[in-house]
Known about the structure:
Layout: E1 2-4, H1 10-17, E2 27-33, H2 42-50, E3 54-59, E4 65-66, E5 73-75, E6 79-84, E7 88-93, H3 99-107, E8 117-118, H4 128-133, E9 135-136, H5 141-159, E10 180-186, H6 196-205, H7 212-221
Parallel strand pairs: 1-2
Antiparallel strand pairs: 2-10, 3-6, 3-10, 4-5, 6-7, 8-9
Protein name: Malate/L-lactate dehydrogenase
Organism: Saccharolobus islandicus (strain REY15A)
Family: Belongs to the LDH2/MDH2 oxidoreductase family.
Amino acid sequence: MWIDAKASIGIVLWTKLVEREFTSDPISIIAVKNSSHIGFLGYYTEKLGKRGLVGIMFGNAEPAVVMPGSSRKMLSTTPISISIPPSIVLDMALSATSRGKIIQALRRKEKIPLGLAVDENGNPTEDPERALRGGLSPIGGMKGFFLMLVLESLVSFLTGSALGSDVKGVLNTESPPNKGEVLIGINPSFFAGYREEIEKLRETLGIEFPGEHGFKCKSEKVR
């Protein structure tokens, strides 16, 4: 399904889209361009997970991340979320940190760790003010940047959205939004739906998977 949202309210649109029927096909894909800010992607993939579906969602926005060795912001933070039923939900950006964390450090008059951002000349910086004039670093250096580049290119390819420094209208609402998001819903009943290895790995690691702690907290609060 492909939708031109025509600057409609992204949160309202996507909340309705994830309520649609995903069970008749092995894989369903929704591609949307030109909606306003939709919030965090894990909200939508979690809804699919609660229905027993796998959810994979990613998108783009205004440029905030520089290519290693450069000072020009070219990609967004490349948000991505993956849910595996019933309660695993990964929600993260592929930048080394978020712009919000930089602003928080500036307000607290704190330094930021080296490696998170660069200044306006492309040099690593601990100064949050200079980081805001420069840009965020990708996770994993060039490998991370290429992963972000391909994901955002796929968003543009499937949705028809703008790409790179041409994306507008998310943080700066004076321009109409021209970004995009892609949601992939997978019905495990058409596949193995095999959880045993996940449980074995959980026991080996001795940790909760992403999203599971929050899922437990929510369950306890609604009792």
